Amino acid sequence: MITITFLGGGKMARALIEGLKSISYEGVVQVIEPDKRIRENLKIDFDVTISEENIEKQYDHLISNSDILILSIKPQTFRKISKEFKNNISNKQTIISIMAGINIPTITDYINSKKIIRIMPNTPVQVKSGMSMWTSSKHVDKSSLDFCKNLLKSIGKEIYTSNENNLDIATAISGSGPAYVFLMIESLSEAGIQLGLKKEISLDLAIQTVFGSGKLALSSKTSPQELRKNVTSRGGTTEAGIKSMLDNGLDQSIIKGVKAAFEKSIELGIRKN
Q1: For residue 21, which of 37, 7, 4 has the smallest C-alpha distance?
Q2: What are the C-alpha distances in Å from 38 to residues 4, 31, 195, 196?
């Protein structure tokens, strides 16, 4: 029986645990999480084994007996926390990281492990509509790769890449992307409010429009550019709106924002404090 331990029990970990249940995983699931409320909710909802108050004393027991350790902690805390559990890692274990920006060589340096899978998911995994790009070190066995692929399919769509550098790009596009979309929803809704709509009505219009447009783009063989042109009649309202947005640099602002997120992802990977 396989034992999986999550180091961190936040929203991403919760989505992965729910994914495990949906693929009828029958092994043991353990969670090390400092927040008592989060720990207890995971215990109630998924019947997982949880850490006690003093989590440092749990590393030896919960991590040492794990077949798979999932690093679901914030990347900014990894270097500090890794010092507390690295002596409990063995070469037999597979390490799965969902930390943005922390690359496989860095993880290897800090915890002396060679079997590493790195995943860049996004928050829609919480509703099983996520987008995850992932990669692995050459030491990971096929059974672990198959397990990871099936798990990610249970919470959305997955793309495997042999080039780890692509994960920094995925971080900037799909990892941070939901926030860009939520900003678009905010802006659409605010425009409706300023034009006289009630907040709840304007928000409904914005959310459903983004949802429906995404669904159409996903199901259509037509490019997003052509789909946009199909809505944009010459001399019409959409053309006026698009022209104003482009004149104000909307497209270039998005591209610059993605590039800024990409650069931050690289920075997180090379920082040595």
Answers
A1: 4
A2: 18, 10, 41, 41
Angle at 133 between CA 131 and CA 137, to 5 degrees: 155
CA–CA gap between residue 70 and residue 96 (Å, rounded): 5
Q: At 213, list the tokens.
A: 């447009």
Of 71, 167, 62, nearest to 111 (Cα)?
Answer: 71
Q: Which of 111, 113, 101, 6 is nearest to 63 (CA)?
A: 6
Residue 151 confidence (pLDDT): 96
Confidence of residue 55 (pLDDT cuts 50, 70, 90): low
Work out the average pLDDT over 118-144. Answer: 96
Say how many residues make up the chain. 273
Q: Which of 69, 6, 82, 67 is nearest to 42 (CA)?
A: 6
Q: Which helix (H) or strand (E) holds 59?
A: none
Domains of the chain: 3-161 (3.40.50.720), 177-267 (1.10.3730.10)
- Alpha carbon distance 269, 267 (integer Å): 5
The amino acid that residue 137 corresponds to is: S
Q: Give 59-112 pLDDT, tens digit per residue.
A: 777 888 899 999 999 988 898 888 888 888 888 899 999 998 899 999 998 888
CA-to-CA separations, 126 to 11, 16, 18, 121, in angstroms, rounded: 7, 8, 9, 10
Within the chain, what is the greatest distance between any pair of CA atoms?
Answer: 69
Among candidate residues 11, 5, 56, the one with its CA nearest the CA of residue 27: 5
List pLDDT tens digits, range 29-41: 999 998 889 999 9
Name the one residue in this structure whose structure tokens are 């902690």.
73
* Helix ranges, the chain (H): 11-22, 36-46, 75-85, 104-111, 142-153, 166-170, 177-194, 199-219, 224-231, 237-247, 250-270
